[in-house]
Amino acid sequence: MPRNRVSGARLAPLDAIRRQLIGGGAHAAPRIHDGTVLAEGGKWGQLRSDVAQGRRVRIEHRVYADGAEEPDEFERGLARLLATKKVAWGEVAGVLHGFDGVKVSAVPSRRRTRQLDDTVVMVDGICCTSALQTLIDLAEYVDGVVWEQALESALRRRAVDLEDIEALLPTMSKKRRHGVSVIRRVLALRPIGAPPTESLLETLMVQIIRTIPGLPPPVRQYRVLNRHGSFVARVDLCWPDLGLFIELDGMHHKGQPVYDAARQTAVGAATGWLCGRFTWRQVTGTPKTVARELAELVEQCRLRPPATV
Question: What is the pTM of this model?
């Protein structure tokens, strides 16, 4: 593959979850600017005046941010790349691609190995490593929990294919690349043929489920039909053999709670299954409590007669 081939294919806009996790506000329209562009036409004096009056902040050599607010770690990382004229990679690229769970650390990482995919894409006007290469890079610097979150979001956006990642594993092992063990471990936990999770919340729930001894992986996005064969609903996660399904509540829109309650009733009427309903606050704030409550639901299901659909 030719080096530095630029592609804009299959890039998704940055989402609300990523903005929420970064903690530094939205970056879909970065406030970071190249000073040479801002001062085009000899306007360096105006630029210095803007900084003195708090309208801009200088982050790196000839790199500025709008406003007086101090830059967050993502913006600092992005500014370093602009100042050195380098392609965004690693954690910064992960944030630009909108991968779940990825944050930019205070100490910048150093690339330790050569790229396996030299494609360069444009994300929000920034030259960035491809989604595939970014995932490979991230495996060297994040743990399996975060890498799985990033992987599921990349699959959800159709930015990568599992086959592409698996095809690179022999080369990565041969070259003794850091991160290959993280990738293998995450892929081994993933059920064969499972669709991507539909949100970070769903990925987090899948990770909590793994902590419950003896509980197999759930079926994802299961279509529930009534006894007449008519479609009732599609549930987030379930165990048909146990007669248990999970409903996850993210940010509600007007009327959403009423709709969710009606859907839960419809699924229960069609299947007789028990429902475990958990919110974003519960899953992210009290995961041990969620695991305990789910384990108790599992035990109740095992005490009941087998459920049928």
Answer: 0.78
Residue 309, domain member (yes or no): no
3-state secondary structure the chain: CCCCCEECCCCCCCCHHHHHHHCCCCCCCCCEEEHHHHCCCCCHHHHHHHHHCCCEEEEECCEEEECCCCCCHHHHHHHHHHHHCCCECHHHHHHHCCCCCCCCCCCCCCCCCCCCCCCEEEECCEEEECHHHHHHHHCCCCCHHHHHHHHHHHHHCCCCCHHHHHHHHHHHHHCCCCCHHHHHHHHHHCCCCCCCCCCHHHHHHHHHHCCCCCCCCCEEEEEEECCCCCEEEEEEEEECCCCEEEEEECCCCCCHHHHHHHHHHHHHHHHCCEEEEEEHHHHHHCHHHHHHHHHHHHHHHHHCCCCCC
Per-residue pLDDT, 108: 54
**pLDDT tens digits for 150-181?**
999 999 999 999 999 999 999 888 766 778 99
Q: How many domains does the chain have?
A: 2
Q: Is 101 left (phi over 0), alpha (psi -120 to 50) or beta?
A: left
**Same domain assignment for residues 69 and 16:** yes
In a domain, 83, yes or no: yes
Say which CATH number the domain at 281 has. 3.40.960
Residue 293 lies in a domain: yes
Give residue 231's domain range.
200-303
Residues 183 and 205 placed together within one structural domain of the fold: no
Domain assignment of residue 308, yes or no: no
Q: Are residues 13 and 87 in the same domain?
A: yes
